[in-house]
Specification:
CATH architecture: 3-Layer(aba) Sandwich
Helix content: 25-40%
CATH superfamily: LigB-like
Order of helices and strands: EHHEEEEHEHHEHEHHHHEEE
Number of strands: 11
Low-confidence stretches: 281-285, 290-294
CATH topology: Protocatechuate 4,5-dioxygenase, Chain B
Largest sheet: 9 strands, mixed
Mean pLDDT: 89
InterPro entries: Gallate_Doxase_N (IPR034939), Xdiol_dOase_suB (IPR004183)
Domain Extradiol ring-cleavage dioxygenase class III enzyme subunit B: 7-274
Protein name: Protocatechuate 3,4-dioxygenase
Shape: globular
CATH class: Alpha Beta
Organism: Neopusillimonas maritima
Structural class: alpha/beta
Number of helices: 10
């Protein structure tokens, strides 16, 4: 049977992809961020991950505000990476597994999640920005991706609790798949940031650290917050954090943090965290780095 071996929370800032494509991994302004993903890549390699279930949001690339689904699951053998204005990226199309994707879709619908299903649609920076930092891709990706897009742009949004329940249903779907696959669930977005309006450039490091602590030890408390609470505490775009709750819902009650990197150098508190279930832990801690630049 398929098994969830851990989960990853990661920012999906589009400039990460731009900096990566321009070879800025050793640039002093970017090095702390890129270095923070090296332990993640090693953890995925050491644990032989076959599948990344990516919970992300589409940034008006495949969908637009006249038709923006609440939950969307992508099905396809290959997904092109969207050109969002900077040109096509020098990355292979993202690999998929149609049988697994179809199984998850059917299981989630039977678990009363009314999904939109797309086929072979392009994937934007919500997934494609952090992906090459975690997985090698020459000549091709080492495994497959199950893309699940969540509406965090067009109100009304799914509630934090609904996203948490999505994660629980996703775990049931994965664990009922008969093939022996090692699966990692990735929640993307955030942490604190606002990129428009009077609070442009707003960050709240104290809230970011509280969120990460609650995510690990008391996620139920995070499900009780409203969208307005997330916006007030972390900025308008930090409502993306509800996608981390979907990732957390797919994990057991008790989890162990394997790695954390927090880097505040732009308008977004760029963060990556790796967790394993305490009863499922297979690797030793690979470190934690807290890096804040004024």
């Amino acid at each position: 049977m398929a098994k969830i071996i851990g989960c990853i929370g990661t920012s999906h800032v589009p400039t990460i992809g731009v900096a990566y494509d321009k070879g800025k991994q050793e640039d002093p302004a970017w090095k702390p961020l890129f270095d923070g993903y090296k332990p993640v890549a090693k953890w995925l390699e050491d644990n032989k991950a076959d599948v990344l279930v990516f919970i992300y949001n589409d940034h008006a690339t495949t969908f637009f505000f006249d038709m923006y689904p609440t939950f969307t699951l992508g099905v396809g053998e290959r997904f092109p990476i969207a050109d969002e204005g900077a040109g096509l990226r020098n990355l292979p199309h993202i690999r998929g597994n149609v049988d697994l994707q179809a199984h998850i879709a059917e299981s989630l619908v039977n678990d009363e999640f009314d999904l939109t299903i797309t086929q072979n649609k392009p994937i934007d920076h919500g997934c494609a920005s952090p992906l090459p930092l975690m997985w090698p891709h020459e000549p091709d990706w080492p495994g497959v991706v199950v893309p699940i897009a969540v509406n965090v742009l067009q109100y009304p949004l799914p509630t934090p609790r609904r996203c948490y329940k999505l994660g629980k249903a996703l775990r049931r779907a994965i664990e009922s798949y008969p093939e022996d696959l090692r699966v990692v669930v990735v929640g993307t977005g955030g942490l604190s940031h606002q990129i428009h309006g009077e609070r442009t450039g707003f960050n709240n490091e104290e809230w970011d650290q509280e969120f990460l602590a609650l995510l690990q030890h008391n996620p139920e408390k995070l499900t009780e917050l409203t969208h307005a609470d997330y916006v007030r505490l972390g900025g308008a775009e930090s409502v993306e954090q509800i996608m981390w709750l979907a990732m957390r819902g797919a994990m057991p009650e008790k989890i162990r943090k394997i790695h954390q990197n927090y880097y505040l150098a732009t308008t977004t508190a760029m963060t990556v965290v790796v967790y394993e279930g305490e009863e499922e832990t297979t690797s030793s801690a690979v470190g934690s780095n807290q890096s804040v630049m004024a």
